Amino acid sequence: MQFIIFIAFTLLVGVVAYYATRKTDENTEDGYFLGGRSLTAPVIAASLLLTNLSTEQLVGLNGSAFNEGILVMAWETLAAIAMVVTATILLPRYLKGGLTTVPQFLERRYDTATKSITSGLFLSGYVVVLLPIVLYSGAVALIGMFDLTTVFNMDQSSTLIVTVWSIGLIGSIYAIFGGLKAVAVSDTMNAIGLLIGGLMIPVFGLTYVGDGSLWVGIETIYNHDPAKFKAMGDNDSAIPFSTLFTGMMLVQLFYWGTNQAIIQRALAAKNLVEGQKGLILAAFVKILGPLIVVLPGIIAFYIFGGTLDASQADQSYGLLVNKVLPPVLLGFFAAVLFGAILSSFNSALNSSVTLFGLDIYKQYIKKDADERQVVKAGKTFGIILALLSMFIAPTIANAPEGLFGYLQEINGCYSIPILTIILVGYLTKYVPALAAKVAMGSGVILYSISQFFLKDYVIENGGTYPHFLHVMAILFLFNVGIMLLIGKLMPREVAYEQAYTEQVDITPWKHVKVMGAIVILIVVSTYFIFT
User: Fold this and answer.
1) Is 421 contained in some domain?
2) Which has more confidence, 396 or 181?
3) Domain that holds residue 113
4) H helix or E strand, kind and range, residue 498
5) What are phi and psi of 59, to 5 degrees?
6) Model confidence pLDDT, tens digit, residues 317-375
């Protein structure tokens, strides 16, 4: 019965996505890469949220909450503020320029070389980090939650390979052959399922703890360890409170405002109003994120705290699902979880195809390529990329312990340099292309030296080292200073002015500032409540 429900829901999503995209002309760049610039607010919001939410959050963030408590909610709640900033400041500029990729702006603002370097950084991050990790973590989560080794009657290694390739092949069909609109439509359905399924876990968990009473369950887990409900972490915690005002906001702004895999949904809006509505709607839902990706970890700590140690925290979410969810609902939750994994994989893959087709193939390989040829080349690259990631993902099982934390830290090598040149590019008019290249090189090199050489040296010699979020903030300010200095000494001859391409209506939503202020007020109030 569980597998029948799983297969039925998964097929339903595929059929709906197929019918929703039949009339989209996917032989054009806008049609394939941006769904014909036709996405509305609910679709944008759902796709944003589900692109972000996957097993890395469900398993990893709940595992962090198992150890650290509610303070890890910063990864969720502060994202809402970043979405407000994106909706009010960045998105109007993106849509005014009719952008398909973020690097396209960098070409207009700086030069072609800057765009190419940025596209290369994005692609390297997706290929080396994101795609294989999504496949691997998703496969491990499904295997652990639903005991697939027994179901398939295979050993752990063989089951991992089968699960990775199943996720990869289905995700590739959506992303490569369906284009962005198929990804976004399937995300919308899966987002509804994930919202329902994700909320079921804490509800059933608290009811289990409270012997049938939800409120008693809340009181029980709070009284068991009140420290788990303190939102402001000290300097020894995973997220010191001070980092919320430094690198945390920079990471959030990069992810929600400049990361191609995320912002591409908003770039596909039919107009600025729909794009801003979608981002604000997603921000409101994101505030509720801790109920899905933090609270279950605290519930699991109450139930399994005596049997799991800190190093086993990532197992807690799967154990909680098996413990509290009625068997009849496991098939539905499996399908929803599968959809979340697919979303992160196919969204990153679709963005990689977009970056390659428009910023690499058309720029350097075949400059006179028409739109049909660009789309075809992008699809071919996507197939190769998907196959590579499916081959690489199972090998991660043999990697040294702590790989996931290590790989997350690598993201800082490209996230902060890219954010730096985009913000300076929009906020100034005379900073030249040379400044952007110097800042990117400086950002990548200095961060790598800091986190992978200097940090180990200092700690091994008994010293203390700043949190990596503080390091990001320091390097961000340093590189902004470098760019402004170069701009002062060697300014552009002509001030940059962004042209309006008139591809979509950029009349802003009249309620965007008020609704954004409400989002920020709720986030700030949350921290006052949980002090």
Assistant:
1) no
2) 396
3) 2-12+37-398
4) none
5) -85, -50
6) 878 988 898 877 877 787 777 777 776 776 677 677 777 887 788 878 888 877 778 77
Bridge partners (DSSP) listed for residue 505: 271
Please report whether residue 290 resides in a domain.
Answer: yes
> What average pLDDT does this structure show over 441-466?
91
Quickly tell me which residue has 């029948």 as its tokens.
4
Give the three-state DSSP class for 269: strand
Taking each helix axis from N to C end, the angle separating 327-355 and 2-20, rounded to the nearest 10 degrees, works out to: 30
Q: Which residues neighbour 436 within 8 Å (Cβ) at sequence distance 6 or greater?
A: 106, 110, 114, 421, 424, 425, 483
In a domain, 483, yes or no: no
Distance CA 30, CA 371 (A): 9
Q: Let me know: does 61 contact 293? Beta carbons within 8 Å.
A: yes
Query: How many domains does the chain divide into?
Result: 1
CATH of the domain at 251: 1.20.1730.10
Whether 360 contacts 119, CB under 8 Å: yes
Q: Six-digit token pair at 290? A: 């801790």
For residue 173, being part of any structural domain is answered with: yes
**How do residues 193-232 score in pLDDT, each as one tens digit?**
777 888 899 999 999 999 999 999 999 999 999 999 998 8
How many other C-beta atoms are found inside a 10 Å radius of the C-beta of residue 508?
Answer: 17
What's the CA gap between 216 and 84, in Å, rounded? 36
Residue 116, burial from CB neighbour count under 10 angstroms (0-12, 13-18, 19+): middle
Q: What is the pLDDT of residues 19-72, one digit of tens each?
A: 655 555 444 444 444 445 668 899 888 878 877 777 777 877 888 899 889 999
